[in-house]
Amino acid sequence: MSSIFEKRRFGIYAYAKFV
Known about the structure:
The chain is mainly alpha-helical. The protein has one helix at residues 3-18.
């Protein structure tokens, strides 16, 4: 049950790849 945690990890990954 890590919905928020998973979203946060994915967000950082997407941000780093996007930037």
